[in-house]
Amino acid sequence: MGAIGWLVDGAAIMNQIPLCRCSYGPYARAMVRVCREESFHQRQGYDLMMRLAQGTTEQKTHGTRGAQSLVVARRS
Fold first, then answer.
1. Is residue 65's pLDDT more than 80?
2. Taking 70 as the threshold, does the pLDDT of residue 11 lie above it?
3. What is the DSSP letter of 7?
4. Residue burial 34-69, b: 16+ Cβ < 10 Å; e: rest
5. Which residue has the higher pLDDT, 46 or 72?
């Protein structure tokens, strides 16, 4: 779950940031709120992955498997 929040939401933010500067005001303001929400999820995922990386051997393995599953899913 943490790997998804960190990597996928990070990619979503990169795609959505330019929309915050569009010329249609209501859409641009809404996208600012969406980006804030995605940023929260990304930060939450990053914090979780950092806790797993600094934890026990079992927790480190869990974090590694989570990140690897995203890479495998992306290749499919």
1. no
2. yes
3. I
4. ebeebbebbeebbebbeebeeeeeeeeeebeebbee
5. 46
Contacts with 28 (C-beta within 8 Å, 6 or more apart), sequence order: 19, 20, 21, 22
Query: What CA–CA distance (Å, rounded) separates 8 from 2?
Result: 10
Q: At a CB cut-off of 8 Å and minimum separation 6, what does 4 contact?
A: 45, 66, 70
3, 63 Cβ separation under 8 angstroms = yes
Q: What pLDDT digit, counting tens, does each position of 47-60 carry?
A: 988 888 888 888 77
> CA 51, 59, 44, 19 torsion: positive or negative?
positive
